[in-house]
Amino acid sequence: MELESISIRHADFDVGAEVEALSGAGTAGAVASFVGVVRGGGEQRDAVLAMTLEHYPGMTERALADIVVRARQRWALGGVRIIHRIGKLLPGERIVFVGVAGRHRHEAFAACEFIMDYLKTQAPFWKKEETAEGARWVDARDSDDAALARWQG
Amino acid sequence: MELESISIRHADFDVGAEVEALSGAGTAGAVASFVGVVRGGGEQRDAVLAMTLEHYPGMTERALADIVVRARQRWALGGVRIIHRIGKLLPGERIVFVGVAGRHRHEAFAACEFIMDYLKTQAPFWKKEETAEGARWVDARDSDDAALARWQG
Amino acid sequence: MGVRILYFASLREALGSEGEQLELPAGVASVAALRTHLLVRGDAWLALSAPRIRAAVNQVLVADSATVTDGDEVAFFPPVTGG
Amino acid sequence: MGVRILYFASLREALGSEGEQLELPAGVASVAALRTHLLVRGDAWLALSAPRIRAAVNQVLVADSATVTDGDEVAFFPPVTGG
Q: Which end of chain D has fewer CB atoms within 10 angstroms, the N or the C?
């Protein structure tokens, strides 16, 4: 099994197959993973009807690879797998998968959250939401910067 | 979708289907999950050849339900799903699944790790390992008590 | 009074018993007293006195000072190792 | 010297451009100088001066003081919102 996989793509992914790939070698006792999903489907006038993800080809892959390097400098990890979808996505659709294998659960959890916090603030993706009132670019959130700062203290 | 599912069983589980059940409603933006796997398959004389999981029927379900209640007192969560296998398992086989859906990733991560930390120290399961040198009951680890203490400070 | 007692994992193996239905004499009304009551059965039962052996009454973890009353289910077991 | 410039997301829409190949006069040798150089094109280009607009040189996030040299790829974009 390849120790690392970073994939930017339109197509959906199979969470079970990703986790299986991370645990398959039998040396990792712990696999922590995260799946981000398009929220929406509410009744409000500004409910999200669809979302379009744009990215910066080339830099995205570099940024994600760099984030994994940083994670490996902090924790002894097994496999790491990252998938981020681009293009148009509907409410309920998966956007992102981050899975981390480790010998112990605390390392796997910490590294998975670390990668998500860096991805949210460092990887060049941008979301545009479509609503009944029109389209709007999603604003960056201060809470994401605060989450990142936890690792930099 | 049922908001909560706690299952103790011999049969394996489908990680993809579990995560799908947690994200299906489309209101949760974040699903954090954990899969524990039987380590082993090494070359050492004391490498684990198989593991048998015993539990205390009735108390196990109560303890897990109580852990979920505690998690919901701390964080606003969507669905929570816990599966723990019992009986004989081989290296590489999945033992446990904990999945938590939330509106935001930090809640989902924290609650998932909280539930694992409590499960490890409060839910009545016991592991017995088979090696080429014989069978032995697994000792509780101080690091698990330390992990639990983080939430009780 | 009568209680149902259960033993698990390494303790079950050490005692050679999964559990028993037991009539307790007056005065044996706490987990601590029940341990002492069982210990006099012989050397194998010393396993029950190890401080790491935990107790649950009616499927809830308790301290040794916990009360035991008629009809209770009392379980003894080593520290848990699931997950 | 020549640089390749890229614009993304809301900035791309505000400028009506995905990017351009540009010959820079002598003296325009930093990200800050490049911003100023582009700003004089007109009101629409004020979008580029917002402090929240970030820059990357050769696909690495940089501060405004970063050097720009011949052949560089310089990208401008708003704060990222992936994940």
A: N
ipTM of the complex model:
0.94
How big is chain A by its Cα radius of gyration, in Å? 16
C44 DSSP 8-state letter: G
**How many CB atoms within 10 Å of residue D40?**
7
So what's the architecture of B3-149 in CATH?
Alpha-Beta Complex (3.90)
Length of chain A: 153
**Cα–Cα distance between A66 and A34 in angstroms, integer?**
19
Q: Round to whole Å and give the CA distance between A79 and A24.
A: 10
**pTM for the structure as a whole:** 0.95
Tell me: pLDDT of B153 over 80.
no
From the list B127, B93, B92, B97, the residue with the least C-alpha distance to B115 is B97
* Domains delineated in chain C: 3-77 (3.10.20.30)
Alpha carbon distance D48, D67 (integer Å): 18
What is the CA angle D73-D79-D83, rounded to 5?
Answer: 105
How far apart are the C-alpha atoms of B118 and B145, rounded to whole Å? Answer: 9
DSSP string, D23-57: EPPTT--BHHHHHHHHHTT-GGGGGGG-TT-EEEE
Read off the tokens for B80. Answer: 């929570």
Chain B CB within 8 Å of residue A28 CB: yes
Residues A58-90 as b or e (16 or more Cβ within 10 Å = b): ebbbbbbeebbeebeeebebbbbbbbbbbeebe
Cβ of B11: how many Cβ atoms within 10 Å? 8
Interface of D with A (CB under 8 A): 6, 8-10, 52, 56, 59-61, 75, 77-83
Using one digit for the tens of pLDDT, what is the confidence trace for B1-59?
A: 568 999 999 999 999 999 999 987 656 799 999 999 998 767 777 889 999 999 999 99
Inter-chain contact A94–B23, Cβ cutoff 8 Å? yes
Minimum-distance CB partner of A105 among B34, B42, B103:
B34
* Spans in chain A with pLDDT lower than 70: 1-2, 25-27, 41
How many Å apart are CA D49 and CA C5, to the nearest integer?
A: 76
Q: Domain segments of chain B: what residues? A: 3-149
